[in-house]
Amino acid sequence: xxxxxxxxxxxxxxxxxxxxxxxxxxxxxxxxxxxxxxxxxxxxxxxxxxxxxxxxxxxxxxxxxxxxxxxxxxxxxxxxxxxxxxxxxxxxxxxxxxxxxxxxxxxxxxxxxxxxxxxxxxxxxxxxxxxxxxxxxxxxxxxxxxxxxxxxxxxxxxxxxxxxxxxxxxxxxxxxxxxxxxxxxxxxxxxxxxxxxxxxxxxxxxxxxxxxxxxxxxxxxxxxxxxxxxxxxxxxxxxxxxxxxxxxxxxxxxxxxxxxxxxxxxxxxxxxxxxxxxxxxxxxxxxxxxxxxxxxxxxxxxxxxxxxxxxxxxxxxxxxxxxxxxxxxxxxxxxxxxxxxxxxxxxxxxxxxxxxxxxxxxxxxxxxxxxxxxxxxxxxxxxxxxxxxxxxxxxxxxxxxxxxxxxxxxxxxxxxxxxxxxxxxxxxxxxxxxxxxxxxxxxxxxxxxxxxxxxxxxxxxxxxxxxxxxxxxxxxxxxxxxxxxxxxxxxxxxxxxxxxxxxxxxxxxxxxxxxxxxxxxxxxxxxxxxxxxxxxxxxxxxxxxxxxxxxxxxxxxxxxxxxxxxxxxxxx
Length: 572
Hints:
It contains 7 helices and 29 strands.
């Protein structure tokens, strides 16, 4: 959850940030001029060769003009002082291979020229890559370098690249070269990057009771992911799961970065087929099939690293915007025949095409992670959605009745998470999270928000409530009980308090408001890796005491006793 320690070595780059050694030591052909300047009268010093923005270049000329205004009497030492000050202005802005030189020239009518040499962006050499193309690294590093070598922007991009979990570590060394590639103290440079990559393949299995008891609470699932299928950082993920009544549960997604700043196009597919296995409904042969197709695009709008906190640790911030077009189809059956169990469905069938606009912000430090995300969903009249044909929107009163929900809707989902580690309190972790959904009208079941279960309100069964609008909140504290080497792994104890409240809008039948709340304890164990393999066992068990009892079926499920458990093995 927390960032891993930095292992980037920017040899030859970070030292230059603190001083303008390359350009300050360079005088080009100025020795003859400066050596013979015991004292000369100069009333104009022209600064030429600056290719940056006008304000910056104007600032250079202002510095030179200030020198001539203060005194027209120049010695070689004073002229060198001006050259160093101009160079320092570049260095302070991160342009460590740029600066001023004084060419060999005569003094004509009290005028001389001071020339600016601007160091171009470095040539980037990548070594050690196996799973990712060289262009994957080169494009991302170059996107921060600009046309001129700027050590601050370059370092920021290298640090962003280091946050990628697919990269184990890398060393970056910046060196100056001449036009033939030989070591040189001028403006040309080469960035040598040695990469050590993680294997981008992962697989795992899970066994838990996080399903609704209606379809069988115990589920087994497997997943596989390749995080760089073609070497471009494109990710393919597939998953399969089943329970007593759920078979199959399939998910597949493919995402492809289309820019060096990791703007991404994504395709997704999900399928769920289930039958009701809980008594007394098992004999009714109730079943449902659903499919969801998605096409999305997201792009970062903020990628920033900066020192922060009392210890000066690095603070990483990321923010992104995106949009996803999602098409979902659901069909329910009774005794093998289409049948509607929820308001809004037509002969058991409901279809939704939604545009989802999402925003995400994350801030990471060595001890804390904070995330806020928002999603606005708008139901579209596209691809033949379920629409009840009249002018009034869902939830409106029609002929003494209430119009049922359909594919026209607007709903907002907000999520927040803060996780912090307290090193002085036995490395305790405190996790705060909250979800909220607000809908402008009644929603079809696939758009409603479930409340209850492991990831919302523990102590209640999964999907205890399914509502148009809902608010959930959770506070959890985790304290290490044991941390050892092989073969023991790490053991944590947990205490938590969960809360959930849900209600429907007019147009959905179960419109009563309900509140769920619980408190409980848990234990989490993360075992050591199995030999040299990436496989790692993980177990979690939570027990919650519900504050408000709700009568449920007699399924004998551990969820009804407040117990939630999961066993997993692999890189998940």
